[in-house]
Amino acid sequence: MPSLPRSRALPVSSAALIAWSLGAASLGAASLGAQSSVAPTPRFTDPDRIAKLTRAMPTVDSIMRAFAERARVPGIAYGVVVDGKLLHVAAAGLREVPSRAAVDTSTVFRIASMTKSFTALAILQLRDAGKLALDDPAEKYVPELRTLRTLRYATSDAPRITVRHLLSHAAGFPEDNPWGDQQLARTDAELSAMMRSGIPFSNTPGVAYEYSNYGFAILGRIVVNVSGMPYARYIREKVLLPLGMTSTTMEARDVPAARRAHGYRLQDGQWLEEPPLPDGSFGAMGGMLTSSADLARWVGLMLSAWPPRDGAEHPALRRASLREMQQVWRFAGGNAARNAQSGALSYTSGGYAYGLRVSQNCLFNHIVAHSGGLPGFGSQMRWLPEYGVGVVALGNLTYTSWGGPIDQVLEALAKAGALQPRTIEPSPVLLAMQQQTTRLVQNWQPALADSIAAMNLYRDESAPRRAAAIKQLVDAAGGDCQPDGPIWAENALRGLFKLRCARGALRVGITLAPTTPARVQEFTVTAFPLEGKVGPAPVCRP
Q1: 498 is in which domain, residue-wise?
Q2: Between the N and C ends of the chain, which has fewer C-beta atoms within 10 Å?
Q3: pTM
């Protein structure tokens, strides 16, 4: 039988277990249809969670400062965001080398391509307002794209570029990082002229991931044309101000001189200042400047989309749309690597969402991030939706590479026990089915089995064969099998639990069918180590 999907779920709450134990004994199969399939909202159950995270902050400081010294970054600012709030923020080094002016936590840095997530949010705002559709052709909103000369598709079967293609780097435009950095100063007229002169394709639209700054510049033009407002004004009024991001801007000259980080590159062992790049028509792909505190608000907004729940929405964007931004829409492949020192094999896979990158590795199921690099600057934001924790980091050295130190920070938090995912709790009907399937393992009763079985269960394996196989396992474990610990929930309708027997243990897995009343579509019983702990399988198996 297929195994249960991997999970990061935690045990159910004591309240749920008490409710189950009080009601299970009197629950009959006929009443199962009355049990709710709606589970309680996932939550953090470790009362010491924030204290553990706080105690780990000196380790975070050590990692970040060691990186800055090793990489010779003039100045850095960084922060750790927990449950939407800035738990820890720090700064070190120089915002301006000649004057020896120090970076502080209010210093404003360029964040380059991290701007793309703000553009994506603006597009989804307009979509949610009914002003555009993601699967509309982009040319519907950008007249310059309507001519054959502008977009001479490589093949006759190529689809028209859509807004969604642009959001997920699937438009078929060539990767343009070296070129894109130098386009920020382009005027609106110049962008229009560039589009009219033609955009070549490296791929057919919709078949491959290829990072395109040009594509996000076009998305900025869509924001302008659909909203009727200049891009910078739209972002300020509709995104930044509702979030209280008062230090964030698209133009370096708007930042007070005493707060602006100067950008540097390292050449022949010396820091050379890079001239500031002005904001222009390509600003939507990488023109933003912000502080560590403001960027923490942005990450907090993204984290606030989890878990899905009832309740008031944020004025900037509804939670469902925020979660939509943070799902893979264009797969970008995977990568396996072996650590040269330890020999451990690791694997990372993922792709592009909307203005954000999404990945999975051997530690974490769901990682959302984006980096930003321009001459003089490098930054990254990364967060773990299941854990409610994020990291932001800013530096004023060209393409400051924050990937390694942020990896170390998250690994250190995990090793310290400071990272714990939310508890995923089972629905009442799953708890009820746990009680009924436990009874079947203890003593198979055909009438009870028939009453809870989905129509597929006995077609997959007959009732007599199931009963015989379960009895054989129970006998081998010594009989007298009793519940041992709470159910581990993959989701509201799927879970694993353990039965401790006289000489061994059994692991039981149940998955409910999409029917009302609820029925069991998958029912597995396997031998299990007596002291084994039922729980999710690791993301990366040995």
Answers
A1: 14-43+423-528
A2: C
A3: 0.90
